[in-house]
């Protein structure tokens, strides 16, 4: 660490070495250091208060490291700084009042720094500012009108905060903006889209996730900016904005929840056909396509999200580049086209809650498939589940629930060593308890309710079966015999309920519908992690159903997942749906973070 004490050191850049560990030492007066770039390393610890001694420092970049503790207020004394980036660390919550007199800054990035409070008024004095990143914090209050004085701003990102109120009209003075993000806040009122379209250099515009209304004229006579990233979700549009017909460079387009209705226009299908990678039209009232295409026209389309509309007919066929395909909660009919077997890059396939039928394509589980999330629930698929799941397969989520599937649970699922969620509930599966699934190391959710499963569950063969399971739902089947005590002793993940986590209770009918399992009541102490389960009843001849002495199954928030055991009545599916949706959100955030990092670099 003595490198920081070299007396003549002016420039040090060790960025983007993720395995390089270290910390910052105490700094002494007299240092000549002007540039210090540590971004993307494994540096940790606290930023020392003595950093204020680096009076010559002009560039300080520690983004995406592992620094913790408080942001030192002495940073506000480094009046020669023209670039400061503290983004994506583990700092303790603090306000931005320490910014003080950094009036020479032309780039300020404090994204994901646990900052809260109002946007400090001192920023109004940063007249040289070109780039301002404040996204992903807990900032509150309103945007002050002085923001319009920063006419040199090229990038303004205030997304994912708790800012509220109207957007000040002075924002229309920022004619040099190339990137503007106000998404995922609490803004209300109206924005004049026609005035924003006068920003000739604007490439990225993000307004989704507020309560804004866009004034959208159908007049497009002015020269338009060439958008690449455009998110206008929840902006009360009512119609497809006509200016989109002239856009040929869009890579990401989000028009979610805008009360769009009827057919997707023909001209829209001809927009940005060579560049569009992500398209989301979810949560509208769309019924179909004005022009039918054998294959969707966007050659580079990686993500298609049409869920929660009224779309009908056969499934739209994506191009081979598709990675994420979501069309749940529509009215699509017919079978899954065979062309889906050739989509080698497909990772997320969401077809749930449609009117699809036929047999499941066996290709969905073969070696060539890259699918990690496979949700075909709430359709009319029939026949056996294909026995084609191969070793090394990437599946993490499988949901075939609420269909008409028969036969046995395919033993090849044991090859899916990354599987986390398996939901086969509400089918016609005729099999015994799949104890062989116990070898899966990451299985957390196993839902088999409302099938024709039967027989004795039996004791586990070893102490490591289902090592991470947190939800087991066996309700409404025909199991009989003892409920093995050993499973409850082995399922330690269900005991992992910490006092600082939120407890949620699902009401359970104590008569228990359609299983004939026997045993004594479970002690409530197991919820606290104590191994205090009673010995099962030995009388196997009893015909009375199992009677538990409790009215609810405790479910806890632990590592972001719901936990519990359901062996009686059918659980409310909202908890499970939240679990799956949370998985998708994590995937989307990873993609958004990647986009941000690429833009910043």
Task: Walk me through the structure.
- The two termini are 27 Å apart.
- The radius of gyration is 28 Å and the shape is globular.
- It has four helices and 43 strands.
- The strands form eight sheets. The chain has a 21-stranded parallel beta sheet, with no helix packed on it. A five-stranded parallel beta sheet has the order 25-27-29-31-33, with no helix packed on it.
- Among the domains are: 1-140, Leucine-rich repeat, LRR (right-handed beta-alpha superhelix) (Alpha-Beta Horseshoe); 446-583, no CATH class.
- The chain crosses the membrane at residues 548-571.
- It is a single-pass type I membrane protein.
- Residues 31-113 form the Disease resistance R13L4/SHOC-2-like LRR domain.
How are the SSEs placed, and which strands pair?
Blueprint: E1 11-13, E2 21-22, E3 35-37, E4 42-46, E5 59-61, E6 66-69, E7 83-85, E8 90-91, E9 107-109, E10 116-118, E11 131-133, E12 138-140, E13 155-157, E14 164-165, E15 179-181, E16 186-192, H1 193-196, E17 204-206, E18 211-215, E19 229-231, E20 252-254, E21 261-264, H2 266-269, E22 278-280, E23 285-289, E24 303-305, E25 312-313, E26 324-326, E27 331-334, E28 348-350, E29 355-359, E30 373-375, E31 380-384, E32 397-399, E33 404-406, E34 421-423, E35 445-447, E36 454-456, E37 471-473, E38 478-482, H3 485-490, E39 503-507, E40 516-518, E41 552-558, E42 561-562, E43 564-566, H4 573-600
Parallel strand pairs: 1-3, 2-4, 3-5, 4-6, 5-7, 6-8, 7-9, 9-11, 10-12, 11-13, 13-15, 14-16, 15-17, 16-18, 17-19, 19-20, 20-22, 21-23, 22-24, 24-26, 25-27, 26-28, 27-29, 28-30, 29-31, 30-32, 31-33, 32-34, 34-35, 35-37, 36-38, 37-43, 38-40
Antiparallel strand pairs: 39-41, 41-42
């Amino acid at each position: 660490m003595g490198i920081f004490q070299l007396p003549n050191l002016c420039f040090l850049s060790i960025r983007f070495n993720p395995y390089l560990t270290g910390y910052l030492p105490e700094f002494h007066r007299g240092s000549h250091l002007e540039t210090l770039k540590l971004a993307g390393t494994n540096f940790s610890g606290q930023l020392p208060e003595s950093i204020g001694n680096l009076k010559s420092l002009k560039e300080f970049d520690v983004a995406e490291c592992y620094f913790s503790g408080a942001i030192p207020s002495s940073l506000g004394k480094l009046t020669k700084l023209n670039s400061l980036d503290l983004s994506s660390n583990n700092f303790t919550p603090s306000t931005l009042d320490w910014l003080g007199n950094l009036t020479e800054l032309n780039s300020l990035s404090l994204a994901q720094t646990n900052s809260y409070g109002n946007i400090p008024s001192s920023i109004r004095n940063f007249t040289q500012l070109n780039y301002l990143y404040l996204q992903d914090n807990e900032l509150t209050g309103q945007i002050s009108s002085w923001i319009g004085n920063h006419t040199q701003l090229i990038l303004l990102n205030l997304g994912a905060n708790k800012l509220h109120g109207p957007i000040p009209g002075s924002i229309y003075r920022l004619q040099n903006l190339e990137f503007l993000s106000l998404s995922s806040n609490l803004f209300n009122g109206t924005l004049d889209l026609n005035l924003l379209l006068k920003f000739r250099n604007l490439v990225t515009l993000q307004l989704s996730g507020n309560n804004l209304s866009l004034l959208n004229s159908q007049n497009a006579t002015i020269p338009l900016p060439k958008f690449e990233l455009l998110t206008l979700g929840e902006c009360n549009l009512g119609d497809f904005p006509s200016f989109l017909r002239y856009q040929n460079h869009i890579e990401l387009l989000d028009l979610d929840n805008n009360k769009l209705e009827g057919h997707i226009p023909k001209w829209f299908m001809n927009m940005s056909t060579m560049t569009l990678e992500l398209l989301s039209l979810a949560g509208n009232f769309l019924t179909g396509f004005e022009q039918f295409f054998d294959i969707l026209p966007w050659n580079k389309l990686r993500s298609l999200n049409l869920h929660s509309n009224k779309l009908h007919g056969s499934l739209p066929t994506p191009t081979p580049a598709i990675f994420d395909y979501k069309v749940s909660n529509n009215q699509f009919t017919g079978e899954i086209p065979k062309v889906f077997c050739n989509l080698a890059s497909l990772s997320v396939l969401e077809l749930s809650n449609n009117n699809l039928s036929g047999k499941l394509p066996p290709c969905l589980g073969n070696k060539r498939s890259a699918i990690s999330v496979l949700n075909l629930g709430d359709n009319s698929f029939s026949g056996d589940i294909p026995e084609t799941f191969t070793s090394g397969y990437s599946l993490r989520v499988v949901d075939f629930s609420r269909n008409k599937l028969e036969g046995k649970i395919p033993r090849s699922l044991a090859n899916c060593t990354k599987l986390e969620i398996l939901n086969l509930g509400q089918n016609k599966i005729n099999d015994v308890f799949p104890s062989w699934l116990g070898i899966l190391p990451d299985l957390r959710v196993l839902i088999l309710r409302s099938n024709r499963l039967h027989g004795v569950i039996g004791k586990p063969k070893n102490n490591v079966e289902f090592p991470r399971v947190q939800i087991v739902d066996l309700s409404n089947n025909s199991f009989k015999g003892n409920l093995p005590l050993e499973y409850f002793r082995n399922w330690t993940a269900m005991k992992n309920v910490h006092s600082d986590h939120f407890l949620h209770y699902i009401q359970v009918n104590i008569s228990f519908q359609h299983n004939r399992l026997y045993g004594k009541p479970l002690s409530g102490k197991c919820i606290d992690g104590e191994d205090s389960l009673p010995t099962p009843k030995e009388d196997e001849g009893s015909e009375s159903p199992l009677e538990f002495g409790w009215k609810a199954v405790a479910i806890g928030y632990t590592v972001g997942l719901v936990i519990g055991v359901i062996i009686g009545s059918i659980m409310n599916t909202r908890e499970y749906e939240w679990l799956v949706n949370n998985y998708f959100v994590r995937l989307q955030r990873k993609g958004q973070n990647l986009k941000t990092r690429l833009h910043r670099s």
